TrEMBL record:
This is Transcriptional regulator. InterPro entries: WH-like_DNA-bd_sf, WH_DNA-bd_sf. It comes from Parapedobacter defluvii. SUPFAM superfamilies: Winged helix' DNA-binding domain (SSF46785).
Length: 185
């Protein structure tokens, strides 16, 4: 049996999503991992996370405690509330961040963009996903002097099918200093 490269990539992406969903049965825990491990700069506190995820504070508290006790998250007291962030010193931090990026399909986006876009200087994740909110629409800014915009228009639906999420690309002429840099030359 012979599979096309596109079919193999779709199967691999489905496999990563399936494995992560089956390994992490708590949707709240999965959302917290995305929040904190997509970008190490992301922070959150229990009530804010409960509002953001539209979850009860008890569900958020339980998962934050589990992730903190396992060493994946660090706690920091700020005035009268506790703030959480990813523990970048944890031995599995890089692996967890890679898994979250694969779960969201960010690795496929970068790989596909770099293949035929021209002189790409920077690929930057913007918007909700850069802040760790899995809202379904991934905003990506591509920076470069002479980019193939026609290819980008044809690429968008293919990437969306590949990763199972809506993707919005924008093109910039100058490097960005905000967002999460996924690639930089």
């Amino acid at each position: 049996m012979h599979f096309s490269k596109k079919r193999v990539l779709l199967l691999l992406n489905w496999f990563v999503v399936y494995m992560l969903d089956s390994l992490i049965t708590s949707k709240t825990r999965l959302r917290l991992l995305v929040k904190f491990f997509i970008n190490a700069a992301n922070r959150g506190h229990m009530r804010g996370l409960a509002e953001e995820f539209n979850e009860s504070t008890n569900a958020i508290r339980k998962e934050l405690n589990n992730l903190s006790e396992a060493g994946y998250l660090e706690k920091e007291a700020q005035q009268n509330r506790v703030s959480y962030r990813a523990n970048v010193k944890h031995p599995l931090f890089g692996s967890l961040q890679d898994i979250v990026h694969k779960y969201l399909g960010l690795d496929r986006i970068v790989e596909t963009v770099l293949s035929r876009m021209g002189e790409v200087e920077q690929v930057v994740l913007m918007g909700d996903y850069a802040e760790g909110r899995d809202t379904g629409t991934i905003e990506v800014a591509i920076v470069g002097p002479a980019l193939n915009t026609e290819y980008l228009e044809r690429l968008t639906p293919k990437v969306e099918e590949l990763i199972g999420r809506k993707v919005e690309f924008t093109i910039n002429g100058t490097k960005l200093d905000k967002g999460l840099v996924l690639y930089e030359q």
